[in-house]
Design a protein that fits this description.
The chain is α/β, with parallel strands linked by helices. It folds into 2 domains: about 260 residues, TIM Barrel (Alpha-Beta Barrel), CATH 3.20.20.105; about 90 residues, no CATH class. About 45% of the residues lie in helices and about 20% in strands. The chain is built from 15 helices and 16 strands. The strands form 4 sheets. It has an 8-stranded parallel beta sheet. A hairpin with a 6-residue loop joins strand 1 and strand 2. The longest helix is centred in the C-terminal third of the chain and has 27 residues. About 50% of the residues are buried.
């Protein structure tokens, strides 16, 4: 499954490969988010043209609509959405816990009201895995309890222990019903308390997992605290496990996390920014819908070789966005996802060449986020 090919000498960055039943992907890697079995604004053919090797799909949303049983009858998630590469499914724990007033949690699971129609559901950790196995995703992620920052230690301990207990229940059901190609990742919780993170990490590794998810970060804590925790996990985790920072994905943040040993990321940022008229470039983000680009005949990024940058100007793309032509959103989303793919290619190349620190400094010197 996970194989380390190269380790950077001046940071904790590392190069590797991860094998699933639907192919191998190179790490560090970024997976676009296909929340409801589609990457917003892009077709599977476009994802293939870009070279995307994997997606993160949300099992919670698919459980509500159209239902896991329908997808199972359709031949599984890969066939349903016509995506032949690796698919990771998130249990939806973060989405459920973000509902706050619309959910109740206890040791058995979570009662929540659907954001779609207000109906009440009760989801156990076993249910969450059963749904993902019905979807037949490559990687199943168990239900966990994510807490916001700041959180009192007593509740952080309770949520961490629930996460461990739920992972045990999830793994037991997974082993009983999994198919030949299904893998199981564990989630590390513990809020900002290092001893709780250590306990959770140790217990999850004892379960026998195929990868480690870093959860419960980027929920309000400062960057220094966040990276201290990521470094702590890197120092205490068995190096043979892939480390997956869920829901994390701004370029400068990725650079910092890679330097601390993170192997995999997912985030809605590339397509969400595309929908708001914002593009990623080597110099940073540009809000192409704004007036300075009215007559700008340059491509979005003069260093980019994607279909959009080869054929369209900033002026044209600004026009499309401002008159609300769907093609504008599609083209910007295409460029942003391509840009992220190329960004990760450059990161891997720098690690291979033994110059990751130099690459990071060079990138940070040019790149400005608006």
């Amino acid at each position: 499954m996970f194989r380390i090919l190269k380790e950077d000498k001046t940071t904790k960055a590392r190069r590797g490969t991860f094998q699933t039943s639907h192919g191998q992907f190179q790490t560090p890697c970024f997976f676009p988010v296909a929340t409801q079995a589609a990457v917003k604004g892009l077709t599977p053919k476009e994802l293939a043209d870009i070279g995307i090797d994997g997606l993160l799909v949300n099992a919670y949303h698919l459980y509500l609509r159209p239902g896991a049983q329908l997808i199972r009858k359709s031949g599984g998630l890969h066939k349903f959405m016509n995506f032949p590469k690796t698919i990771i499914t998130d249990s939806g724990g973060y989405q459920i816990f973000s509902l706050q007033r619309l959910r109740k949690v206890n040791d058995e699971g979570v009662e929540f009201q659907s954001h779609v129609d207000g109906k009440t559901f009760f989801l156990t950790p076993e249910d969450a895995i059963k749904i993902q196995l019905d979807l037949n995703s490559d990687v199943c992620v168990p239900l966990d309890e994510c807490v916001k920052f700041p959180t009192q230690r007593d509740y952080a301990r309770l949520a961490m222990q629930r996460t461990i207990d739920w992972a045990r229940k999830s793994k037991a059901l997974f082993l009983k019903h999994k198919g030949e190609g299904n893998l199981f990742f564990g989630i590390i919780q513990g809020a900002t308390y290092l001893d709780l993170r250590k306990k959770c990490l140790d217990e999850i590794m004892k379960l026998g997992v195929d990868g480690l998810c870093i959860g419960g970060l980027s929920v309000g804590e400062g960057a220094d605290l966040r990276y201290n925790i990521v470094s702590f996990i890197q120092e205490n985790a068995d190096k043979r496990y892939l480390r997956y920072f869920m829901g994390y994905g701004m370029p400068l943040d990725i650079l910092e996390a890679v330097a601390r040993g993170v192997d995999l990321f997912d985030c809605v940022v590339p397509t969400r920014f595309g929908r708001t008229g914002t593009a990623f470039t080597a110099q940073g983000t540009i809000v192409v819908r704004d007036s300075p680009y009215t007559q700008d005949q340059r491509p979005l990024d003069e260093q980019c070789c994607c279909y959009v940058c080869q054929g369209f100007t900033r002026a044209y793309l600004r026009h499309l966005i401002n008159v609300k032509e769907i093609a504008g959103v599609q083209l910007l989303s295409y460029h942003n996802v391509f840009w992220y793919k190329t960004f990760m290619d450059k990161i891997r190349g720098a690690i291979d060449q033994g110059r990751y620190n130099e690459f990071r400094k060079e990138f940070e010197a040019k790149y400005k986020e608006k």
